[in-house]
Amino acid sequence: MASLTVLLRHSGKWNDEGNYIDFSIKGIPIKEYASFNDLVAPISNQLGIDLSSKSIKIQYKVEGNCTPMKIHNDMCYRVYVELKKENREFGMYPLCITTIEKELVSGCSLNQDDIVQIDEVVQRYDSDTDDTLALDFVNSGEAIGVFELHKDLIISKTNQREVMAGQVYKDKATLKEVMENYAIAQRFQFRVDRSNAVRLQDCEWRFKASSINKSELFKVREFIDNHTCPLKDKVYEQRHASNSLIGGMIRPKLTNHKRKYPSKDIIDDVKSDLGVDVSYMLAWRAKEKAMNFLRSEPADSYKKLPGYLYTMDMTYPGSHIRMVKSPKNEFMYVYISLYAFIKGFDHCRPIVVVNGSHLKSYYTGTFVSTSTLDGAGHILPLAYVVIDSENDIAWTWFFEVYPDVPYFACIWNLWNNIYKKFKKSHAKLSEIYFSMEKAYTQVEFDSMMKKVEKVDIRVKEYLELVGYEKWARLYAPVNRGWTMTSNIAESINAALVSARELPIYDFLE
Length: 509
Hints:
Helix content is 34%, strand content 20%. By secondary structure, the protein is of the alpha+beta class. The chain folds into four domains: 3-101, Phosphatidylinositol 3-kinase Catalytic Subunit, Chain A, domain 1 (Ubiquitin-like (UB roll), Roll), CATH 3.10.20; 105-239, no CATH class; 240-295; 411-477, no CATH class. Strands 8, 9, 10, 11, 12, 13, 14 and 15 form an eight-stranded mixed β-sheet that branches. Strand 14 and strand 15 form a beta hairpin. The longest helix has 16 residues, at 280-295. It starts with a strand and ends with a helix. Residues 164-220 form the Transposase MuDR plant domain. Pfam families: DBD_Tnp_Mut.
């Protein structure tokens, strides 16, 4: 990967004229194609800056602009790289580094009224009382500009197991879910409510948290995780794991649609992570909730299709992309044939294999793929379609370009029909049937058909009814070559087994 050499100016300061003075210098290489984080890491390593307690401000000056430009996200980094590529001299556009303490340094103090204490309210078990912890999350008066947090230090995942003072969470919901997981693992109960001064005098457990200057960020101010009250599993109710809580916990494991994650594995993971037993149905509902969160509601997937198909049409000019809706504005069919597929067919064998397979998402449907082989025997997709179901109207619409082209049967599908319809001498019939369909001469074909007649005359009558030209190479009006099965289409379908469970937008994508 290409890189650029950049001069660093550090340990200096900005004067009133907008110039960085009294600095020391060092150098680092940076990647042309990278992110803002990929810039922060080498700078902190080179300058020995501990990002757990400090953050860095990265600025540079452009000729004719007296105001320093700040690099604080990926877009700013790309602008700097493009500018640096225009002038690769080592001393041009040096990066000026300012180090900032992440903790509160000056100009702002926290008033006691700005942070509401989250105290534990513990009572002896009684059927009329609610044994809970009263948790309250409020805004503090802390100025967010006083300290800057590196985004890697902001906790955004709800599977955080260790809770301690000083942690910063991306929002209230994340902190709340982390505390729910923590309560289940530690076997105590709480509810989110505005706290007050009432608490059990014999218990030292304390929790304080507040937002930072009314932003979404929440910081744990104080956490004394020491229960001195008689809180026992057999005496007090425990917090139960809900399907929402479990769904949030297992969500990262469902991002890959190819992964098999049955309810039994979910039950085992909840037992391992939280130490509680859950039912099969609860695990199943949690998985459904997590799937809906990741992929949205199935109905919403259809709303995305017009925009998706428009983007496809603009991205691949010359393609044939169509969507058909019913008079009630309901989805019926979508057809996609990319320009590369269309042009590639000019160099392929004039035989098209069509095969359908059922979609397994909430609204089902049928996926139809068409493919062929090139001169080297490689599979080339020609088009792919989603239809509401396999019916005469859908097939007529699909084949309207070639209404008079002869069509043939897959010999394996035909044999499966024979196998199910006739229960006699399958082993003997199988050997005769597959030899007969590949026969090149009339004598060979007639000899095999006589053997079929001796085994089961009903099979002979069935094959005559289907039509010899549909399955026998000898009677085919065109040269079928070796394309006697729909295996090439089956190969495509096999690669999409897990994807067929996705909503239609994610499936097409």
